[in-house]
Amino acid sequence: xxxxxxxxxxxxxxxxxxxxxxxxxxxxxxxxxxxxxxxxxxxxxxxxxxxxxxxxxxxxxxxxxxxxxxxxxxxxxxxxxxxxxxxxxxxxxxxxxxxxxxxxxxxxxxxxxxxxxxxxxxxxxxxxxxxxxxxxxxxxxxxxxxxxxxxxxxxxxxxxxxxxxxxxxxxxxxxxxxxxxxxxxxxxxxxxxxxxxxxxxxxxxxxxxxxxxxxxxxxxxxxxxxxxxxxxxxxxxxxxxxxxxxxxxxxxxxxxxxxxxxxxxxxxxxxxxxxxxxxxxxxxxxxxxxxxxxxxxxxxxxxxxxxxxxxxxxxxxxxxxxxxxxxxxxxxxxxxxxxxxxxxxxxxxxxxxxxxxxxxxxxxxxxxxxxxxxxxxxxxxxxxxxxxxxxxxxxxxxxx
Length: 400
Ligand SMILES: Cc1ncc(COP(=O)(O)O)c(C=O)c1O
What we know:
It catalyses: L-aspartate + 2-oxoglutarate = oxaloacetate + L-glutamate. The protein is of the alpha/beta class. It has helices at residues 15-28, 47-58, 71-85, 99-111, 127-134, 154-160, 183-194, 220-223, 255-266, 274-285, 289-310, 347-358, 382-398, and strands at residues 34-35, 94-97, 117-122, 138-143, 165-171, 200-204, 231-236, 249-252, 325-326, 360-361, 363-364, 374-377.
């Protein structure tokens, strides 16, 4: 009999974290590594947020808090949803967790029974299928390839819905592609969902503020208020305010669901870090200048990376609407060989050979459910990005 649980056999460790760790190990061995595998802004948390956290510590805000968030933070989140998304929630419809990741996990744990299906468009954030499996549900993956702009069509969504469908997870702008659903496309999806009252919508809006050019962010409950009482609108401070390490995510949704998620959280982490909650209040209620500043920097880097990658032999890189990722295709390189004779049979081999030959760490597309691609996180300095693109161009040029 195995010591480890059967649950564990349904999940795999996060490939993005594995790649980041490998890059770290190689750097520790003295290799010249540029890691473009981690999904976090490379900026410091804004000063006023850090100050609020220090003040909270000094004021003794260091004890257990209410399970799913202090009242000030819940109110700040209600105000944020009203301000940015035109969504009216009351504090009882808000939950705060240890990162958006825990919020998503709580929701799945609180609702899934064996056999329940969760529709996940691919390419997807690596954690969705594993979290669904951990919670005992069945992931149903529907692909949206490069030709579809990495966006699922209404027909594709309609065809995937069965009587067992409990949730559909939407993530715009997306990790790993940066693709965003504009209002008319979102409307086509919400029209489908209006016809299927048993399906709930989990909208992961983590990259809401990182949108470029004239793209306008929308979230399903805003586009179709008729869906609001079966939608969980998930967001967080990690990406919006460079606060990944503080671990605060939140969601708005129907009271019954929010209460159930609180029950799960009460028996796992008790409450999100007290100090971080006070920092998140400062983030949501304080000056919002950081958002526009980081957006401008990321847009410049996106342009730099997209144009650089499109000059690489065999790489096709679409221009994303948001987030800080690009998801180019390497279909043009499959079957070629490195100077050492290794055949590029898939994107995993490409990523490993690229790392070995050049020291650039990217994440292979198979991890996100759509191959042959790779993901670059351009949350790195301009100098590192220019250097990395040069190395990738050089590497692709050596493949025969
Ligand atoms: C799409 C998406 N959702 C959720 C998360 C979770 O973010 P956090 O737990 O830091 O709030 C991430 C982080 O990488 C993400 O990319």
